[in-house]
Structure formats: structure tokens, C-alpha cells
Input
Amino acid sequence: EAALRQPRAGLGAVGPHVERRESAACEERVGRAVVGDTAFVELQHLADERCRGVAIRTVHWSARFHLHCRLARHFRRGRVFLAGDAAHVCSLFGGQGLNMGIQDADNLGWKLALVLGGMAPDRVLDSYEAERRSMAQSELAYTDSSHRALFARDAAWPRSALAHEAAFVGSTDTAARRRLFAHAQLDVSYRGSPIVASHGRRAPVDPAAGDWFARRGFSGDRHHLLAPAALRVEDAVRRVRVPIAVHPTDEDTLHLVRPDGYIAFRSCPADLSALADYLDKAFGLAPANGPAG
Output
């Protein structure tokens, strides 16, 4: 169980770590003089200020770090790509940095595999920045504003507010669950991406093109097309070199799901010509020798 304390001296947090050790983090004022000659003495002083009753016996590791909010102007320049902390740096608040880095790799990996394998054009790689940078910008705005509110010198956080922040995670309330999904980056959407498209109508409760497709069991090494069993999709699928697995369904809808689990294309009712047009625009390769004449 983790403990969070906010006395006038500043914020302090203590929580369990590996091998029966405890980890501690304390906010420190910029320019504060070092207390004592060793990390042990200084950390005990901070513990006395922030977490009374905590006795430090052994310091296994300690370090100071500055919190930043940084976002690269571009995530791609030619053959160079930025991901993870090289692309964005945020506050530790909420642990969003690791989530963003993993999703960067998940988004870029399959695109690199297709382009390097000669199965997709180079322009597919441009969608990496288009999809991930806007998401990172949104997350950084959230973590930075939350951090500033929590660590503000004049912040008067009552116990009820801190208790609410800790309790909402386990709540079954719809609003709380939506907030939790956003906080965990489980509601990421790539609507508006240059390699995402839709055709026809969409019910308000259905996921749109660019949204996460909540279905397990799909391999991450190819696209997956869900199509009506009576529909012959082979000709449309063969138009491109991108590996596509076909899954028959009973719905009059086409869902093309990307290797990272997001919907690349959606058509309701199922329209093969619209699917073919999408595949040509997104993954079509120009003839090696160019047009004749």
C-alpha cells in the first residue's frame, strides 16, 4: 500500500518496492541547500518533514531528477524516427511515459515491417507522426496540468480530494471508468489519420475507423478483414501485397483491422469497391518503371 503525504514542507510519497524494500519520492524546492553530507542524512531529513514516523535504515540508491514537459517538433525526418522519451518527456504523474513509448513502438513497428518488406509505400511511415504526435501532445498537456495542480505551493488539497483520486480507479461508475480508460491510454483513437477511412453509415455505439477494435485472438503480423461470409473478397485483397487474413462474419459490414488492433477501414453496408479504393490509396505500390510513354 502506498502512502501520500502533503504537509506544508512539500509532497512526499512512500510505497512498496521489490525484495521487501520501500521506494520514496519527495518534492524538493529548487535551490534548496543540501542537508547533511550523505544521501542517508538528507533523505532522513526529508522523511522527517514529509512522512513522520518513517525511519531510513539503508539507502540502496538515490538520485535527484528534474521534471520536464517536452515534445519533439517532428517524429520523422527521412530515415530517422523518434519514439519514447526521445520524442516526448512528461511528468511522472500517472506513469504515462511508459504507456506512450510502448504505443509508439506498436504503431511504428508494423509500418516499418511492411515498407522494408516491399509490401507498402514509404508514405505509410508518414502516418506515424500524424497519429502519435497529436496523441502525445494531448497526454503531455494532461500530465503537466495535473502535476502543476498537485505540486502547486498554494494548493490546498483536502483529504477528501486525495481520497477521491485514489478511489475512482476501482469504481464501476461509467464516468469514472471512462476517466480510467483515458488515464491508462486505452481510449486512444486515430480518427483522421491519412491511412484510416470509412464508408457508409455508422451506428453511434459502434467503433469508428481509427478506433480500437476490441476483439482478441488476432495475430499482430498482418491485417485482418472481417467480411460477410457470402462476399467474395479475394480479388480486393489481392490488389495489394499487405498480408490480410479474412474472417467470415454474419454482419453486413467490413472491418479491416491493423496489426496494432485499430480499425483501418470500415464499410457499412459492406462495399467491396470502397475497400478496393482504400487499399489502393493506402498501400498501393507504383509500378517500378513508372508510367509508359
